[in-house]
Amino acid sequence: MIGRTDVNSVTNWNAPLVWEGTFDPVVIDDIYRRMNPRVAVVVLAVGKYTRFLKGFLESGEKYFLVGLRVTYYIFTDNEQDVPNVTLSEGRKITILPVPSAKRWQDVVLSKMKWATVTIDKQIRNEADYLFMMDIDSVFYNRFGAESLSRMSAVLHRAFYKRDQFPYERRPESKAYIPAGEGDYYYTAAVWGGYLEDMYRLVKYCYEQSEEDAKNNIEAVWQEESHLNKYFLYNKPAKVLSPEYLWSDYETPGSDIKLIRISQLVKDYAEVRPNGGQ
Ligand SMILES: CC(=O)N[C@H]1[C@@H](OP(=O)(O)OP(=O)(O)OC[C@H]2O[C@@H](n3ccc(=O)[nH]c3=O)[C@H](O)[C@@H]2O)O[C@H](CO)[C@H](O)[C@@H]1O
Ligand SMILES: [Mn+2]
User: 3-class SS at 261?
Assistant: First the structure.
């Protein structure tokens, strides 16, 4: 392995910043397969978003933590639409019913509530690591054990080359970050870590957004704004490059050697209950 000289492979707080070429997949896989951790993946598929389940699960079986134990926790208001996907050994699906919603904003915020409640009730006894993921995504390449840590966050592809970030700037919101602060902007569409650390964080996002709701305010990027505030003051143990969440809307530059997951192109107005971006 030669390493990389065209990108930073460490953050300014000395956490690893993971890019293709900065780790040896064979060595990492060997270490983690011996430890054999149980990994939970929490996804919501509410309303028309059940259409994304098939592609997500089938590609996940090909590329996501292959050889490790994975349970997909699918929160949906439409159980009948969950496809029958053949899973590899040691992997399973758990379906959890949630109510339908009138606003997409309520769905994305409710991720934090359902994750908190279900970790308490069930997942705590079934997993060592937990990932939160958007369902409108497909795996294109290896997303392996190099992604695991106490807390791993993914750089948002639209902001990793910038120094201006779309944080919540209204002091009235719990997600408020003052101007001039902040080192990175992370996506809320993929993040993961040790079960108990993730529990603390999803609960934090849930409670902060509840506080905001009481004060009649909603953070500019919903749960993503609260997540970014948490990570500003509680640095992730590992940062994953935008390889770990790209988007089919955009062609990557030469620093992205491969795309591991990508968000699909979708008709926002058609797929969301209340339309809109
Ligand atoms: C790449 C990225 O940064 N993505 C973020 C961005 O995503 P997107 O604009 O891609 O949001 P989105 O429409 O994918 O919604 C996020 C997720 O919520 C679920 N869902 C949403 C609506 C619905 O009617 N039914 C349903 O199941 C589903 O799992 C979906 O993947 O903005 C969202 C809201 O601020 C979240 O922060 C996402 O993580
Ligand atoms: Mn999405």
Answer: strand
Residue 252 structural domain: 17-266
Respond yes or no: is residue 224 known to be catalytic: yes
Q: How many domains does the chain have?
A: 1
Give the pairing of strands 261-263 and 137-139. antiparallel
Residue nearest to atom 15 of ligand 1 (CA): 108
Residue 3's pLDDT band, with cuts at 50, 70 and 90, is confident
Q: Active site residue: 223, 224, 250, 270, which one?
A: 224
pLDDT tens digits for range 108-150: 999 999 999 999 999 999 999 999 999 999 999 999 999 999 9
Q: Which residues pair with 212 in a beta bridge?
A: none
Taking CA atoms only, the protein residue closest to ligand 1 atom 30 is 134
Whether 271 is covered by a domain: the verdict is no
User: Which one of 81, 134, 221, 248 would you pick to mutate in the ligand 1 pocket, going by the greatest count of ligand atoms within 8 A of its CB?
Assistant: 134
SS (H, E, C) 81-114: HCCCCCCCCCEEEEEEECCCCCCHHHHHHHHHHH
Ligand 2 center–CA 267 separation, angstroms: 12
Kindly state whether residue 10 falls inside one of the protein's structural domains: no
Task: Note whether residue 144 is domain-resident.
Answer: yes
**Ion ligand 2, residue ranges at CB < 5 A:** 134, 136
DSSP class of residue 11 equals -
Is residue 186 within 8 Å of 154, Cβ to Cβ?
Answer: yes
ipTM passes above 0.90: yes
Question: What is the model's pLDDT at position 1?
Answer: 66
Mean residue pLDDT of the chain comes to 97
Using the mean position of ligand 1's atoms as its centre, give its distance from the Cα of residue 134 in Å: 6
CATH label of the domain that carries residue 138: 3.90.550.10
Residue 135 known to bind ligand:
yes
In a domain, 88, yes or no: yes
Mean pLDDT in residue range 21-28: 97
**pLDDT above 80 for 276:** no
